[in-house]
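User: Fold this one for me? It's ABC-type transport auxiliary lipoprotein family protein.
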Amino acid sequence: MVKRAEGNSSDRRQFLTVLGGGLLLAGCAGGNTPAAFYGLSASVPSEVAGRSRGVQVLVKRPRALKTLDSEYIAVVDKGPVFSYFPKAAWTDSLPSVVQTKLVQTLQGTGRFRGVGFPGDGLLIDYQLLTELRAFELQIDGPNRGVVEISAKLVNDRNGRTIGSRGFRAEARSPGTTVEQAVEALNTAADQVFAEMAAWIVQKV
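Assistant: Here's what I get for ABC-type transport auxiliary lipoprotein family protein.
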């Protein structure tokens, strides 16, 4: 269980560096063997405005800074200071997990002729380019899962950007265990994925 530090900045620094089984500091993750792996549930929007499109969309692997381009589940304190849950990890690197869930979400709308990954052999009409801006449990206030993804939709036939937008959602976490953090992140991610799917349907 991750514990929150209260009080002054010195207390918070001590919290992040001396836990004895709490958070794992950035840069120390390499020697930490996960005992449990966690995934994301794919959002399946119940209703997406717009008609079905006979187009195919390629979802590229999201870009991310090194702090999020990892299989470890991030915890962010004021600073920001990035740390990670020990003995726990995503089922793959976080950008790959998000890419898979975006593909599943778009497929779940039933609005496209095809949605897939690079190498799937699609006759591509549009490319979805994304960047992970936040995907973490934030503890610099009320504990909450925060997901922020920047998206750009590109017409593959002429290379023109037809739209770009940022998507962000937060979900309160009742505590700071890894299970509670993943549940909050799933809730926030579902909202982001659903809003992104609706936006893409409208754009194409």
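One thing worth pointing out: The chain is about 25% helix and 35% strand.
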